[in-house]
Amino acid sequence: MALTGIQIFKLLPKTNCKECGVPTCLAFAMNLASGKAELDSCPYVSDEAKEKLAEASAPPIRPVKLGKGVRQRVTGGETVLYRHEKTFFNPTLLAATVPSDIDPSALDKKLKVFNAFQYERVGFNLRPELIVVKDVGKGAAAFAATAKKIASESEFNVVLMTEDVDVMKAGVEAAGFKRPLICGATAANIDGMGAIAKASDLPIAVKADSVAALIPLTDKLTGMGIKDIVIDSGSREIKQALEDQVAIRRAALKTGNKSLGFPTITFPCEMASNIDMETLIAAMFVAKYGGIVVLSDFRPESIFPLLLERLNIFTDPQRPMTVTEGIYPIGNPNENSPVAVTTNFALTYFIVSGEIEGSKVPCWLLIKDSEGLSVLTAWAAGKFGGDDVGAFVKKSGIMDKVKHKEIIIPGYAAAIAGDVEEELPGWTITVGPREAAHLPAFLKTK
Questions:
Q1: Do 82 and 301 touch, CB atoms closer than 8 A?
Q2: How many Å is the Cα radius of gyration of the chain?
Q3: Domain 326-445 belongs to what topology?
Q4: Cβ–Cβ contacts within 10 Å for residue 380, how many?
Q5: pTM of the model
Q6: Which CATH class is domain 5-57?
Q7: Residue 166, by phi and psi: left (phi above 0), alpha (psi -120 to 50) or beta?
Q8: CB–CB of 337/364 below 8 Å?
Q9: Distance between CA atoms of 134 and 184, rounded to whole angstroms?
Q10: Mind listing the pLDDT tens digit for each residue in 57-81?
Q11: pLDDT digits over 351-378, tens only?
Q12: Structural domain boundaries in the chain
């Protein structure tokens, strides 16, 4: 951020009204300077101050909104080169390509398959977001028809990809209501493409032959009043494409180059001859700064690992992933089924629940809030003590679901067994295995 907390404070109304959620305007200014608050939280800031603060607080890489409605997504808006410095904010958007001359019935089948790619993970619904309508030279009518069908009949956001200005106009007329990304501005057609983006208030992707060649093109677009820009360095050779991604991110973050301060679009589909290699290249771009990654197709063996990688990379490293405290039935348990307890660290939950499910032994799994810590760490930090676990079991409601009084605690927390027993008189406290992989055999013997 260009302004310090004190500089921001001078622009605030200094009413100390507390309506922003903090006690003083100075505290709010410090939060704003550190990225912990939004300017809109202050209801009394003047328009002049808003303009100055908005410009000063803008991230070095502009956030660009794609699509409309509940499926609207944002790319860009990043503030750090390395994830551990703070966090990455807006996950890489994943796109599949559809040719403009695809048969409507074939497109219906494809969209049905694409819509099925939704995966539940750590409480999140993971799915790809974009479909690229690629002009294959069959005319404006075919391009517009395909774009309209996808925009109207699917929840996917749309990228319109053509370098033909007339074809692009037809596509925008058909699908402009979905706020698609116009992908196809080059040095040869930038005036026409820019005019379309400007007139329809649409984001635009610009392509050049190198990183340096992008600068005059983005400068021209911003000079036309267009702010929502996505950039493509043009390289389709893997090593050079990676170098370009790093160079663009460093230029925006380290040297403040506003001409390159935009999210990128990458095309693994144009760098490989098969979906397996595309997936490997896409994984590289998810990790190294691709704002949008375009594949030739969505397939389960490709899209699922990319979604998981994206989830891991774009999760705040300073905040552990957690699941909600409560009772989790696994395998349709009944009143005689075993009861186990563990922490709410997401990885712990998924490993333990996965092993229980694999054992084919129906079980009640109690998840206790441990502030996202694993079992051993939570026990050492006093977040998974015997008294706390016992009290949690009492209030969880599990006593209304089972007839027996036996609970299985993690092997790494064996030391809390006595305290749990004191808190739960009459209960049998069984120490389970230390490793989740040993749970199936343990449960079967029970």
A1: no
A2: 27
A3: Rossmann fold (3.40.50)
A4: 13
A5: 0.80
A6: mainly alpha
A7: alpha
A8: yes
A9: 10
A10: 678 899 999 998 888 999 999 989 9
A11: 999 999 999 999 999 999 999 999 999 9
A12: 5-57, 64-313, 326-445
Residue whose pair of structure tokens reads 């340096």 in the numeric block? 212
Length of the chain: 446
Q: Which CATH architecture has domain 64-313?
A: Alpha-Beta Barrel (3.20)
Tokens of 221: 């677009």
* Tokens linked to 296: 């030739």
